[in-house]
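explain this.
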Amino acid sequence: MAREGAADDGVVLGLDGIVRCPWCGGSADYVRYHDEEWGRPVRGDTAIFERICLEAFQSGLSWLTILRKRPMFRLAFAGFDPRAVAEFDSSDVDRMMDDAGIVRNRKKIEATIGNARAVVNLLEDAGDGALDALFWSYGSGSRVRRPASMKEIAAATEGSRAMSAHLKGIGLRWVGPTTLYAAMQACGVVNDHLIGCAAGGE
Protein backbone atom coordinates (compact mmCIF):
# COMPACT_ATOMS: atom_id res chain seq x y z
CA MET A 1 0.00 0.00 0.00
CA ALA A 2 2.00 2.94 -1.23
CA ARG A 3 -0.38 5.71 -0.24
CA GLU A 4 0.62 9.22 -1.23
CA GLY A 5 3.37 10.72 0.85
CA ALA A 6 4.67 7.35 2.00
CA ALA A 7 8.38 7.16 2.58
CA ASP A 8 10.49 4.33 1.19
CA ASP A 9 11.63 3.32 4.65
CA GLY A 10 10.39 1.33 7.60
CA VAL A 11 8.09 2.03 10.48
CA VAL A 12 7.99 5.41 12.18
CA LEU A 13 7.36 6.44 15.77
CA GLY A 14 4.29 8.65 16.14
CA LEU A 15 3.95 11.56 18.51
CA ASP A 16 1.73 9.30 20.62
CA GLY A 17 4.60 6.83 21.07
CA ILE A 18 3.06 4.19 18.77
CA VAL A 19 5.09 2.66 15.94
CA ARG A 20 3.23 2.62 12.60
CA CYS A 21 3.64 2.26 8.85
CA PRO A 22 4.98 5.54 7.41
CA TRP A 23 2.11 6.22 4.99
CA CYS A 24 -0.41 7.13 7.67
CA GLY A 25 1.48 10.01 9.23
CA GLY A 26 0.28 13.58 9.07
CA SER A 27 -3.47 13.02 9.36
CA ALA A 28 -5.63 11.89 12.26
CA ASP A 29 -8.05 10.33 9.75
CA TYR A 30 -5.24 8.28 8.23
CA VAL A 31 -3.95 7.19 11.63
CA ARG A 32 -7.42 6.07 12.72
CA TYR A 33 -7.96 4.19 9.44
CA HIS A 34 -4.54 2.54 9.71
CA ASP A 35 -5.01 1.53 13.35
CA GLU A 36 -8.63 0.41 13.23
CA GLU A 37 -9.39 -0.77 9.70
CA TRP A 38 -6.58 -1.23 7.19
CA GLY A 39 -5.40 -4.81 6.99
CA ARG A 40 -8.11 -6.19 9.27
CA PRO A 41 -10.23 -8.98 7.76
CA VAL A 42 -13.32 -7.75 5.93
CA ARG A 43 -15.95 -10.34 5.02
CA GLY A 44 -19.29 -10.30 3.23
CA ASP A 45 -20.40 -9.53 -0.31
CA THR A 46 -21.55 -5.98 0.45
CA ALA A 47 -18.44 -5.07 2.43
CA ILE A 48 -16.14 -6.45 -0.28
CA PHE A 49 -18.12 -4.70 -3.01
CA GLU A 50 -17.79 -1.41 -1.14
CA ARG A 51 -14.01 -1.73 -0.83
CA ILE A 52 -13.61 -2.57 -4.51
CA CYS A 53 -15.77 0.41 -5.49
CA LEU A 54 -13.99 2.87 -3.23
CA GLU A 55 -10.57 1.77 -4.45
CA ALA A 56 -11.78 2.32 -8.01
CA PHE A 57 -12.96 5.84 -7.13
CA GLN A 58 -9.58 6.50 -5.52
CA SER A 59 -7.71 5.86 -8.76
CA GLY A 60 -5.88 9.09 -9.61
CA LEU A 61 -6.92 10.76 -6.35
CA SER A 62 -5.84 10.95 -2.74
CA TRP A 63 -7.09 8.07 -0.59
CA LEU A 64 -7.70 10.64 2.16
CA THR A 65 -10.25 12.31 -0.12
CA ILE A 66 -12.13 9.01 -0.48
CA LEU A 67 -11.89 8.24 3.22
CA ARG A 68 -13.39 11.57 4.18
CA LYS A 69 -16.15 11.23 1.58
CA ARG A 70 -16.95 7.62 2.50
CA PRO A 71 -20.09 8.43 4.56
CA MET A 72 -21.55 10.32 1.60
CA PHE A 73 -20.55 7.54 -0.81
CA ARG A 74 -22.46 5.10 1.37
CA LEU A 75 -25.54 7.32 1.29
CA ALA A 76 -25.33 7.83 -2.46
CA PHE A 77 -24.82 4.14 -3.23
CA ALA A 78 -27.41 2.63 -0.86
CA GLY A 79 -24.77 1.29 1.51
CA PHE A 80 -23.11 -0.43 -1.47
CA ASP A 81 -25.74 -3.18 -1.42
CA PRO A 82 -25.10 -4.69 -4.88
CA ARG A 83 -28.76 -5.58 -5.41
CA ALA A 84 -29.87 -2.03 -4.64
CA VAL A 85 -27.19 -0.39 -6.77
CA ALA A 86 -27.97 -2.75 -9.65
CA GLU A 87 -31.42 -1.13 -9.85
CA PHE A 88 -30.01 2.38 -10.34
CA ASP A 89 -30.75 4.09 -13.64
CA SER A 90 -29.76 7.26 -15.49
CA SER A 91 -31.66 9.44 -13.01
CA ASP A 92 -29.47 8.07 -10.23
CA VAL A 93 -26.38 8.87 -12.27
CA ASP A 94 -27.63 12.44 -12.69
CA ARG A 95 -28.40 12.63 -8.96
CA MET A 96 -24.87 11.58 -8.05
CA MET A 97 -23.32 13.92 -10.60
CA ASP A 98 -24.99 16.73 -8.62
CA ASP A 99 -23.74 15.38 -5.28
CA ALA A 100 -20.66 17.29 -4.12
CA GLY A 101 -20.28 14.86 -1.25
CA ILE A 102 -18.82 12.18 -3.54
CA VAL A 103 -16.37 12.06 -6.42
CA ARG A 104 -18.41 13.15 -9.43
CA ASN A 105 -16.89 11.05 -12.17
CA ARG A 106 -19.60 9.84 -14.53
CA LYS A 107 -17.57 6.95 -15.91
CA LYS A 108 -16.79 5.63 -12.44
CA ILE A 109 -20.39 6.07 -11.28
CA GLU A 110 -21.69 4.20 -14.31
CA ALA A 111 -19.05 1.51 -13.87
CA THR A 112 -20.10 1.05 -10.23
CA ILE A 113 -23.71 0.48 -11.29
CA GLY A 114 -22.61 -1.92 -14.02
CA ASN A 115 -20.34 -3.70 -11.55
CA ALA A 116 -23.25 -4.12 -9.14
CA ARG A 117 -25.24 -5.80 -11.89
CA ALA A 118 -22.34 -8.14 -12.63
CA VAL A 119 -22.04 -8.98 -8.93
CA VAL A 120 -25.77 -9.68 -8.72
CA ASN A 121 -25.41 -12.09 -11.64
CA LEU A 122 -22.55 -13.78 -9.79
CA LEU A 123 -24.62 -14.09 -6.63
CA GLU A 124 -27.60 -15.45 -8.54
CA ASP A 125 -25.39 -18.05 -10.22
CA ALA A 126 -23.25 -19.06 -7.24
CA GLY A 127 -25.25 -17.94 -4.20
CA ASP A 128 -24.78 -15.39 -1.46
CA GLY A 129 -21.17 -15.16 -0.35
CA ALA A 130 -19.83 -15.79 -3.85
CA LEU A 131 -18.09 -12.42 -4.18
CA ASP A 132 -16.58 -12.78 -0.73
CA ALA A 133 -15.34 -16.30 -1.55
CA LEU A 134 -13.94 -15.23 -4.92
CA PHE A 135 -12.13 -12.23 -3.45
CA TRP A 136 -10.56 -14.17 -0.59
CA SER A 137 -9.59 -17.10 -2.80
CA TYR A 138 -6.85 -14.97 -4.35
CA GLY A 139 -5.09 -14.64 -1.01
CA SER A 140 -3.71 -18.15 -1.22
CA GLY A 141 -0.03 -18.14 -2.00
CA SER A 142 0.36 -14.53 -0.95
CA ARG A 143 3.36 -13.26 0.99
CA VAL A 144 4.13 -15.21 4.14
CA ARG A 145 6.64 -12.74 5.56
CA ARG A 146 5.49 -9.18 6.20
CA PRO A 147 7.45 -6.42 4.45
CA ALA A 148 10.15 -4.54 6.33
CA SER A 149 9.90 -1.38 4.22
CA MET A 150 7.58 0.30 1.73
CA LYS A 151 10.05 -0.61 -1.04
CA GLU A 152 9.16 -4.28 -0.57
CA ILE A 153 5.47 -3.71 -1.34
CA ALA A 154 4.54 -4.19 -4.99
CA ALA A 155 1.77 -2.21 -6.67
CA ALA A 156 0.23 -5.46 -7.96
CA THR A 157 0.82 -9.17 -7.51
CA GLU A 158 0.17 -12.38 -9.35
CA GLY A 159 -2.95 -12.83 -7.23
CA SER A 160 -4.33 -9.36 -7.96
CA ARG A 161 -3.64 -9.78 -11.67
CA ALA A 162 -5.47 -13.11 -11.70
CA MET A 163 -8.42 -11.65 -9.79
CA SER A 164 -8.53 -8.69 -12.16
CA ALA A 165 -8.80 -11.02 -15.14
CA HIS A 166 -11.51 -13.02 -13.39
CA LEU A 167 -13.62 -10.00 -12.46
CA LYS A 168 -13.25 -8.43 -15.88
CA GLY A 169 -14.30 -11.76 -17.35
CA ILE A 170 -17.62 -11.61 -15.52
CA GLY A 171 -18.27 -8.01 -16.51
CA LEU A 172 -16.68 -5.71 -13.92
CA ARG A 173 -14.79 -2.55 -14.87
CA TRP A 174 -12.23 -0.33 -13.08
CA VAL A 175 -10.85 -3.47 -11.45
CA GLY A 176 -7.23 -3.40 -12.55
CA PRO A 177 -4.51 -5.32 -10.68
CA THR A 178 -3.31 -2.27 -8.74
CA THR A 179 -6.82 -1.32 -7.64
CA LEU A 180 -7.52 -4.87 -6.54
CA TYR A 181 -4.24 -5.24 -4.68
CA ALA A 182 -5.07 -2.09 -2.73
CA ALA A 183 -8.45 -3.65 -1.89
CA MET A 184 -6.75 -6.91 -0.86
CA GLN A 185 -4.48 -4.96 1.49
CA ALA A 186 -7.37 -2.95 2.91
CA CYS A 187 -9.47 -6.06 3.52
CA GLY A 188 -6.73 -8.07 5.20
CA VAL A 189 -6.38 -10.65 2.43
CA VAL A 190 -2.68 -9.79 2.66
CA ASN A 191 -0.96 -8.25 5.68
CA ASP A 192 1.21 -5.39 4.44
CA HIS A 193 1.66 -3.68 7.78
CA LEU A 194 5.42 -3.34 8.02
CA ILE A 195 7.43 -5.44 10.45
CA GLY A 196 7.40 -3.59 13.73
CA CYS A 197 4.08 -1.79 13.09
CA ALA A 198 1.88 -1.95 16.19
CA ALA A 199 -1.21 -2.66 14.07
CA GLY A 200 0.36 -5.56 12.18
CA GLY A 201 -0.07 -8.32 14.74
CA GLU A 202 2.45 -11.10 15.13
Q: What stands out?
A: Residues 2-7 have pLDDT under 50 and may be disordered. The longest helix spans residues 106-126.
